[in-house]
Design brief:
Order of helices and strands: HHHEEHEHEHEEEHEHEHEEEH
Number of helices: 10
Oligomer: single chain
Largest sheet: 8 strands, mixed
Shape: elongated
Helix content: 25-40%
Radius of gyration: 25 Å
Distance between the termini: 45 Å
Number of strands: 12
Low-confidence stretches: none
Strand content: 25-35%
């Protein structure tokens, strides 16, 4: 069995039908059917259960699909690495980021492109679940994210480069009167106001960390809204609907009037940040050099 046949097999598994797979591969249906038969004969197993035109993977087929995905990814990454040995640092670097970490990228990308002008970037924004899928499918090489990385996959799959922690700050409507101490507010005072919490079905770490700090102070918050979007929460704050707590660096991404940030008194809690990538993924030269900008 060769690489070409593995690609045929994976396409059939993805499409669930010989006809669609043949069209996807730009080849005739009879030759593709013959290749599948040869693979099954060579392995001595049935890879698909047939039900009319529909094909469903057997247990043996599921195992081969898992291994073939990994083998092809490593094969393609090896080819890329070999080609890059003499090509210099160029090509497109795909990065994922949660929206609350976007502010960490512009300055580094600007500086990086001054040194490596032939590198272009594709940036995908999403929550932990989406970024995990993007990493798994090799659509992105690196993900800049809050830690811990809340993925449905085994945490051992990931390499993590921790970055300096980001202090939490209170974010309030500019029109509110917020205590006698200018620029500072206590958890008790915050608990007196309606609270907006950043939370999604897949990523709850930041929400739980903030609620934990409220409870530690002895003043649970009055949560009136849970929202998955930082931009929406900031807009709600600007409208005077409620207050929130966000990492300090997030606010540099939002130039919205009618809001103000305040240091939180008697609360020393930080948001951990890091860059995540797959341990079994051979990073491209451009990804390795970009990663080094966070280390230097």
């Amino acid at each position: 069995m060769d690489i070409r046949q593995l690609r045929y097999f994976l396409t059939i598994a993805q499409e669930g039908q010989i006809t669609r797979a043949a069209k996807q591969l730009n080849m005739g249906q009879p030759p593709l059917s013959r290749q599948l038969k040869l693979m099954e004969e060579e392995l001595g197993v049935t890879l698909f259960e047939r039900s009319g035109k529909q094909l469903r993977l057997t247990h043996a087929g599921e195992l081969l699909q898992q291994r073939a995905d990994s083998l092809l990814n490593q094969f393609n990454e090896t080819l890329t690495e070999v080609k890059e040995l003499h090509a210099g640092i160029r090509g497109m670097l795909s990065i994922g980021a949660v929206v609350s970490c976007i502010s960490l990228l512009p300055q580094r990308i600007h500086s990086f492109r001054q040194t490596y002008p032939e590198v272009t970037f594709k940036i995908r924004e999403g929550d932990h679940s989406l970024l995990a899928d993007q990493l798994d499918q090799r659509h992105i090489e690196l993900a800049v994210t809050r830690l811990p990385f809340e993925s449905r996959f085994d945490p051992e799959r990931y390499a993590v480069l921790p970055l300096p922690s980001d202090p939490f700050v209170a974010v309030l409507p500019g029109s509110w009167e917020c205590g006698p101490t200018r620029g500072q507010i206590s958890m008790r005072e915050l608990a007196e106001h309606p609270f907006l919490s950043l939370k999604t079905d897949q990523t709850k770490g930041m929400h739980e960390r903030v609620i934990q700090e409220f409870n530690r102070s002895g003043h649970p918050p009055r949560v009136i809204c849970e929202c998955s979007s930082v931009a929406i929460i900031v807009a709600l704050v600007a409208e005077g609907i409620g207050a929130t707590i966000l990492p300090e660096s997030v606010m540099s991404s939002f130039a919205i009037p009618n809001i103000r940030t305040m240091t939180i008194l008697s609360a020393d809690f930080q948001s951990d940040v890091g860059i995540v990538w797959l341990k079994d993924h051979v990073l491209s030269n451009r990804a390795r050099h970009f990663l080094n900008t966070f280390i230097e």
